[in-house]
Design a protein that fits this description.
Blueprint (H helix, E strand, L loop, with lengths): L4 E4 L3 H9 L15 H12 L5 H11 L6 E7 L5 H12 L3 E8 L11 H16 L4 E5 L17 E6 L9 H11 L5 E7 L7 H10 L6 H4 L7 E11 L5 E12 L2 E3 L5 E8 L3 H10 L2 E8 L5 E8 L3
Parallel strand pairs: 1-4, 2-3, 2-5, 3-4, 5-6
Antiparallel strand pairs: 6-12, 7-8, 8-9, 8-10, 11-12
The structure holds S-adenosylmethionine (SAM).
The site of S-adenosylmethionine has 18 residues, from loops.
Length: 314
Amino acid sequence: MMYDNFFNFKKDTDELIHFVSGATNQMPSKFFYEGIGAKHWLTLSSKIKFNKDELMTFLDQTCMHLTNESFNYIDIGPGDFYKTHEIVKLFLKHNKNISFFAVDASYEMLTPHLTESAYGNVSKIKKLIHENNGTINACVIDLFNLSKMNIFKSTTRNKFVTFLGGTIANIDYQEFLTAMSSFLEKDDYLLLDLPINKETSSSSSIERIMKYKSEHFHFISRLNLSPEDFIYRVDQEDFINEDETAYAQSLHLVATLNKTELSFSKKEFRIFTWNRYDLEKFQKACIGSGIEVLSIFSNHNKNMSFLMLRKATE
Ligand SMILES: C[S@@+](CC[C@H](N)C(=O)[O-])C[C@H]1O[C@@H](n2cnc3c(N)ncnc32)[C@H](O)[C@@H]1O
């Protein structure tokens, strides 16, 4: 086992049934990384070269302002753990004592034997953390359920939470901030990278998504539902809204659950959305959620902003 502790709090079957019953046409993006989706993402990400310099320079400067000595470092959606490893090294460079929690809604994304690079990064993190008397833990859970769990709480350590890779683009930011606001306690930190609107296109993301085509529903077999119960087809075209701040792929789905065919008023299901946010609006929403913005840095492409945030109130 790669981790000192592995917690599995997954209860997605209910959510999936809610989705196929037609109550919503928004497929939660986390399903995207289930089953074969995880392997695809990890394989793809190992081919994309991420320029870590901008994020690390920003973090290095921000780290100096962290007054606490000990943290529970919680990385939501660590992916191939590349950035996670860099952040762990940075914490140790600044003499911070940490225990680490990898958190993901996808079980597969936390079983890092999937690719060599993910396995290698987790091994390095484990070594560093153990040398510094911390623990390395993993937890399969939807971020929207984090506040219900006690395992991340500590009387002596603040939380330092990261949600990187622009993943916030896949969810409603207001819902995300509400969830974070109840998860974070006073003086806990949150580091985000936020895809911002204007300028440059999101073509690389579109390309990435195209690669997943037609394999999205692998997760169904993991949820004890028979894949034969579902007939699905992914449309060949992306949906892009008028101001191009969001896009999604559409999916035609017919499902039979317990031998009953479910009919849908809409045959189009959005399964993946990529939002680009207005930085000013986002900052206001943070303040409204009791989260203060400590520092902001926009990358040289001006399409992504890094934000260091801190929970201001109890
Ligand atoms: C694009 S990867 C991010 C990888 C990495 N952080 C990086 O910067 O390279 C997004 C990850 O977030 C996870 N994720 C998406 N929605 C989630 C949710 N609601 N709760 C928990 N994890 C979620 C996915 O399963 C996936 O593993």
